[in-house]
Input
Amino acid sequence: MLSTTPRTTLGREKHRGSTDRTDLYEVLDSGLICHLGVVRDGHPMVIPTGYGRIGDTLYLHGSTGAKSLRAGGGAEVCVTVTHVDGLVLARSIFNHSVNYRSAMIYGTARLVTDEDERLAGLRALTEQLAPGQWDYARLPNRKELAATSVLALSLEEASVKIRRGAPNDEPEDYSLQVWAGVLPLVTMWGAPETDPVLPEGIDVPIHIRERQ
Amino acid sequence: MLSTTPRTTLGREKHRGSTDRTDLYEVLDSGLICHLGVVRDGHPMVIPTGYGRIGDTLYLHGSTGAKSLRAGGGAEVCVTVTHVDGLVLARSIFNHSVNYRSAMIYGTARLVTDEDERLAGLRALTEQLAPGQWDYARLPNRKELAATSVLALSLEEASVKIRRGAPNDEPEDYSLQVWAGVLPLVTMWGAPETDPVLPEGIDVPIHIRERQ
Output
């Protein structure tokens, strides 16, 4: 079960809320990037960035010099992951909507200092985007690790919203001669584009070919 | 040209910044949703929501009862629109990246009260997601308009970041026997799914069929 706090209790469209923790995992695990919200000098700032999950901890990373993570370490953050699954084309403009799955996580980001946890977090971040690459590419060296901040965020305070299915129109609109339905949005991987300077004879590895 | 303020001057990866206003328009006009950042009770909050653009104004909307827009009207917001175009699979984990186009807009959201501007904003919001629907579906009635807040945000303070192309690896890594390149992410519309309760004889309109 997901926790209920004032922030995660939906004020509107409660029927779209999920309190199932597996829904939270599903939304996070099938995403590529999140939008990280921080408050800097009193102003909101929303940064697209990668993430990874291990159990009930979300990992974020950045350069040790990045403005957004300086603000984020030890500070309140909101991490949002959103999938757009389709357009809901209703009989009325007012009931137009989007089929989506989204997760919002609130909490205080903790700067990870333990080297084992830092590596585990970076591995989770890499594997979220590109499964198989951690065991395939060159691992970070000491200098690269020193240049990288890893932040941990508990999934304790989270909410999930999901909208699926056909439009919900006003009762009187169902007799209109207006087409209604869903236009699905499909996301897929294209054919790998080899780096032009790659020497000949190095094939696309199977874990990348298999994603298509 | 885009303005330069402390917030829109990139601290890192300056080479990815664009100061071309047409890049800003392109990123915004090809998006479906944005992530709206607000500060509520001192905490950041990031909400996925629709938007529309008219000239140098971005329009947002929501229920008059929504928590996020109550915080947003007259308050500082940050709106971020992100496109993920592909994964950058480098020879080293450290140089893994994402090909993306993103725009961040900072400013104070203005609650729109003029009825003509409200309608124009709602039209832009609808057409951003579903071009052609404003002239096809039933327009908002007085009750629906009363239940809808429209916010305007100037595009004056905005930044754009774009990453394209092959990995940038460390010089010494180019001799590794590791495949490197880009895995493109492709987004497309699927076949329209007609509402199961739609009466027979109403075809999918051409402006929806044409999107595929």
User: Anything to note?
Assistant: The domain at 14-209 of chain B is CATH 2.30.110.10 (Pnp Oxidase; Chain A). The first strand of chain B starts at residue 17 and ends at 18. The two ends of chain B are 34 Å apart (CA to CA).
